[in-house]
Automatic annotation (TrEMBL):
Needed co-factor(s): FAD
InterPro entries to which the protein is assigned, alphabetical: Acyl-CoA_Oxase/DH_mid-dom_sf, AcylCo_DH-like_C, AcylCo_DH/oxidase_C, AcylCoA_DH/ox_N, AcylCoA_DH/ox_N_sf, AcylCoA_DH/oxidase_NM_dom_sf
Residue span, Acyl-CoA dehydrogenase/oxidase N-terminal domain: 7-117
Positions of the Acyl-CoA dehydrogenase/oxidase C-terminal domain: 234-350
Superkingdom of origin: Bacteria
Pfam families noted in UniProt: Acyl-CoA_dh_1 (PF00441), Acyl-CoA_dh_N (PF02771)
Region Disordered, annotated ranges: 127-149
Family that this chain belongs to: Belongs to the acyl-CoA dehydrogenase family.
Organism from which the protein derives: Streptomyces lienomycini
Protein name: Acyl-CoA dehydrogenase family protein
Amino acid sequence: MDFSLGEELEAVRDLAREIFTDRATPERLREVETSPTRTDTRLWADLASAGLLGAVLPEADGGAGLGMAGLCVLLEEQGRRVAPVPLWPALVGGLAVAAHGTPRQRAELLPGLASGEVRPTVALEEFGPADPLTPRTRATPDDTVQHGPRWRLTGTKAVVPAPDGARHVLVTATTDAGPGLFLVASDAPGLTREPAETTTHDMSGHLALDGAPAEAVGTPGDGAVAALVRDASVALAAVQVGVAQGALRYAADHLGGRLQFGRPLATFQAVQHQLADCYIDIDAMRVTLWQAVDALREPFDAADADRAALVAKWWATEAGLNTVHRVQHVHGGIGVDTDYPVHRHFLWGKQISTTLGGAGADLERLGALLTGAAVAS
């Protein structure tokens, strides 16, 4: 398997790295963390004007058609700098609309997403031990409507990322025909939002839906929910690879420059072993991530892609959290000083490790997939 990026993806990586390095400075991060929305709108506009948002979307919708591969390159660079912009929910949602939406839905949402003027978010999680593939939120058809939204959603969605500024929310809900994906306007009647601050300082929201009108994206039971959850898992793995790499860079710089007994801390064997474990874990995270991206290349087998995505997510959850823990440990007391930037990598690593379920939930779903494949064969 060839894991080289190719010229187009290398160009995306290099441009994204330059923008994130220049814009997502520790000083700017502190400024955004105290803002009402916790989103760096200037950085979002810079990414849009550079064509990086559109690079992910299909060419027919105003993008460059780089898809999940382009998105993962972009997200990895974001993770390195823990830049506070809602890339993964907006672009994963955009790809879902591109794959399953009607021509009208695509025309209303995707060109604006590429230009940075329109931003969706996704509502995939619920309170309690809920599997994102089987949401408790219910969608019922509304036969009284002749034009416009013809579904009504009732339920609660937890920790919806970056709802401020998002015009639409892609909500997963259960129907009589199976799970479905629905597009809800952020100001729809019957939708209320409770602000919720997360570990990463992102200002998310809990959504309460009480008969909120919604449009179906695709047909309930057609696999759109499974595809969205799979893409979100791969996207989160990509962010976590970047977070872990950025944390390790801080550790290497810190230990190389700090002396003890007249020697750099980096020369002590106990520290070297800790960083070697981080390096090995990050390499495994990167390999499984790009194996999952490769499994999504058209034409692809959905079962194989689901398994690869869960493997990548488990490595990102388990190894990513281990890496940021070790990095904070080798920094000593400075690792928990909020004036020193490495603490953000720990917070991001912790948050990502619980999104869409932790390592145990990943293994449970992976085991069910493998058992089902074995039984079917």
